[in-house]
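Sanity check

After download, print the first record. It should look like this:
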Amino acid sequence: MKKLLFLLLLCIPIKYIDAKCLYSDLAELKKIASNVNESYEYKIIDNKAYFDVTLTNLTDDIYFVDTTNNKAYKNNNSEITLKDYNSGQTIVYNFYSSNLDCQDTVLYTIRIVLPQYNIFYNDPVCDGAKEYSLCQRWYGNNLSYNTFLDKVNQYKENKKENDNNLEIEPEEVGNNNLLHYVINFLTNYYYVILIIFCGIFIIVSYIRNKKNNIYN
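Expected structure tokens:
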């Protein structure tokens, strides 16, 4: 009976499992993944911004998953460009090992927050207010057009009011500055002036007394 059981065990196929991902392998894979660089460019179509993201320094040892659509990319080249992301979108790329033993670990993550395109950027109301934040090309806002107009017009009115307050006649400015300088000088150095006047008075008195003694 024991011999029969032993023979049956020999007939059962045994699946050999490879060793788990070694720490040294994982460290090397993380280093490879961290060397991946990202960059992006934009294009404007019908007053909307679209972004193309380029990843470089890719190798066969790794692949990545774009979490926006859960699509995996394994590129044979060192560079790949993914196109037509929307402005304001947050992109997350998770990198994994191509080695089956190490595939369960996220080696590296790249997070890209694309700037929000301002659809009111070129509106005529922004003439004379290009420095205002609501008139910049990239500005995240959910304002309605009417609210946008109100805020920009209010900014321009405040700017004009401030400019008018700064307008002073040049002659008046010059006179005020001179008077201010004289007052400050007298306030800060009055004791010096007093000493000088006293000294002059003593010298003049001494000379007069000496002359009077000579003639007498």
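If your output differs, re-run the checksum step. Summary of this record's structure: The first strand starts at residue 37 and ends at 45.
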